[in-house]
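quick one, three chains, predict together pls
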Amino acid sequence: MAETILMKGNEAMAEAAVMAGCRHFFGYPITPQNEVAAYMSRRMPQVDGVYLQAESEIAAINMVLGASAAGARAMTSSSSPGVALKSEGLSYLAGCDLPAVVVNIQRGGPGLGSIQPSQADYFMATRGGGHGDFHMIVLAPNSVQEMFDCAFTAFDLADKYRMTVNILADGVLGQMMEPVVMNSPKMAELPAKDWAVTGTGGKRKSNIVNSLYLKPEALEQTNIERYKRYAVIEKEEARSESYLMDDAEICVTAYGASSRVARNAVDMAREKGVKAGLIRPITVWPFPKGVFLEAAGRVNSFVCVEMSMGQMIEDVELAIRCKKPVAFCGRTGGMIPDPEQVLAAIMKDGRLS
Amino acid sequence: MEYNMVVAGFGGQGVLFAGKFLTYVGMLGGRNVSWLPSYGPEMRGGTANCSVIISDRPVGSPIVLKPDVLIAMNLPSYDKFEPLAAPGALVLVDTSRITREAARGDVTTFMLPAARMAEENGLNGLANMILAGMLIGKTGLCTDEEARQALIKTIPPRKAELLEKNMTAIMLGKNA
Amino acid sequence: MKTIFERTPALSDAVTHYCPGCTHGIVHRLVAEALDELDLTGRTIGVAPVGCAVMAYNYFECDMVQAAHGRAPAVATGVKRTHPGSIVFTYQGDGDLAAIGTAETVHAAARGENITVIFINNAIYGMTGGQMAPTTMPAQVTQTSPYGRDVSKAGYPLRVSEMLATVDGARYIERVAVNSAANVKKAKAAIKKAFANQAAGNGFTLVEVLSTCPTNWGLDPVKALDWLKDNMMPYYPLGVYKDGAAPEAGGEA
C-alpha cells in the first residue's frame, strides 16, 4: 500500500495530475491556488513535463487548448476571477470537443472579491462558464484525499467524453492538509486520440480542430450530437454520497467544504434526536437528480448549505420538482458557515415538519 | 478524544510548522487529523495562525471556531483568540512577548517565557516547539518517541540536521 | 513649534499593509508629493492594480478606481476620456503591467493616451507570494522558478521602458530606482515631470521604478537595496528613454 502523508489539497491534486499522465501545465499566479503552480514548476522538470507560466489566464487556457489539440493531457488552475477570464477558452474547448482539466480553487466574489474560500462560482461552473451551448463535467471534492483522487477521474472523464472537466474546490480544500494515501488507480480504457493534430506524416488525411461552422444547419447538428453525449453523461456519471439518509426526515445537502460543516451539523442534530441526513453531490454537473428525487419521497424538507447566496439550491429544487420545501443556509463573500448555524436551520425546519 | 487547536503568532515564528508537527503527532497516533492555515496578505509579515484538529471521529469542518487548545505567541493573537476559547480550554502563552494577565477565568492558562528560554538554550526560533512540547507535557498527547517520529515527518529533508534542536526544544517545554 | 516634517496632503494617514522594508511606501509618497507640488491633487483620479498595490485606493487622498488585473490602462482610458481635464494615473506592478496587462499598456501608449503610468518593477509577484514575474532576472529563484529562471524555457525579462520608447504615441518614458537617497530624488523629479507633461496635454507618460521586495526575495531590507543595485540596474539601466513629441500625424485630419 502507498504511504500515507500529510499534504495540502492543492499539492495532492497537482501530484495526482502528474501521476495521471499530465505533462502540460499552464498557469498564472492567483491566491488561493498558488500551490498548484508552484508544485508543478518543481515537479514537471523532474518528469520531462512542461510547466509554463503564461502572461495571462486567457493565454493559459489557450495554451491548454493547443496542447490538448496536439493530444496531450493538459491542465490549468486558477481561482474565481481567473477562471472567469478563461471562459473564452472553455467555450472554444467545448466547440472543438477537446479534453481538458481546469481547476477552480474558489474565492469570494464578485469582482476582485476576497481571497477567502467561497462556493459562489457554482453557476459559472454548472451553466457552462462561457458563450454557447455547452457543459463541463464538474467534480466537487470535499477532502484532500478526494482532491487527489479526483484528478485521475477528471483526466479520464475528459478523455472519455472529449470535454472539459472542471474541478470545483475552494480555498479551504486547497490550503488544508490532511492525510492522503497516494494510490494510483488503474487507468480507464480510453479511445485513441486519432483526431489530434500531430502532423500527418504523409500517412493520413489532415486533422482539423475547429469550432467554426459557416452553415448553421451543420452547427445545429453538431450541438445536437454533443448534447446526446451529455445525456449519456447525465445518466452514467452523476455521483453523490449519502450519510444517515436511510431513516432521515430532514435532508441536508451541500458539496465541497460546506458539506463538512453540514456533516458536523447533521451529527449534532442526531444527538438531539432529530433525524437529519446528508446528500453530498460529488458531481454538480451532472447533478445527481435521481438521488434527490428519491429522497423527496421520504423526507419532509431539505436544507441546502452553501458558501454563496444560494446557487446549488436551484438544482435541488429542480431535481425534486419542488415537491418539498428547501430552506437555504449559507454564508458568502469568503465566510464559512458555522455548524451551529446549520444546526439552527435544521432545528427550525424540524419544528415545521 | 478530540482536540480543536489554534496555534497563532507572527509570520516567521513557526506557528504553521508547530501546527503541522502536532497534526503529524495525531496522524501517527492513528487519529483523524486536519490542518488549515490562515492565508493571504497577513502571512506576509503580519499575523499567522492555523487550525489543527485531532479526533477519534472523522474530521468534519476543519475550521476551529472555539479552540479547546490555544497556543498564543504574540499579543494580537492572544487578544483575538483568548475570548474564543471553549470553556475549560488549555491556553499556552509565550510571556516573552505577551505581558498581560489572562482575561479568562474559565480556561486553564499556562504562562511560559518560551522565546527567552529558546534564546538562553541556543534554540533561537524554536519557541514554537517549546510550547508544543509543553502541550504534550500537559496533555500526554504522545510519547517522546512518537514526537521524534512526527518531527522526522515534519522537518523537510534538506533541514534534517535541525531534528535534535527541535527535539531538545520539545523536551524543554515538556519538562517546564 | 516649527514643523520640520509632515505628511503630504495627497497621502492619507492610513497605515499601509506593505511588508517591512518594501519600497512601495516611498513611491506612494513621491507620487503624492508630485501631485501636491504641482497643485493637481484635487483633479487627480488614480487607478489601482491587482497586486501588492491593490489597496492603493486607501493610501491616496484623491479619487481612485480599483481595476481588474492588468486592465488599469484601459480603465484609466475610460476615465480620462470622460474627464479630459482630470489627471489620471495608474500604479501597477510588473505582473499586472508586463504580463496579463501587456496589451493594455502597449495600446494605451500607442494611442498616446494622456495618462501617467507609475510602473513598479521589483522582479517578482509579491501579493501572491513570490512567483516569477515577466521582469524576473535570469537565474533568479522564485516560487515558480525553483531552479532559477531558465531563459530557454521561461523566456527573457522584459525591458518595458525600452520597448515603450519605440511606440510613437509615448511622450515621456524614464526608468528610475529608489535604492538610495540620490536616486529617490531623481525618481521624484521624473514622476513630477510625467505629471507635468500630462497636465500640459502631451500624451502618454510612464515612469518605471526599480523597487525591492525583501519578503519574497528572502533578503533583509538593506541587502535587498544592494541586490537591486547589483542585479537589476545592470539589466535595467536607469535613464530617460523617450522625451519628446510624437511624429507629425500622416492620417486623415
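The longest helix of chain A spans residues 216-236.
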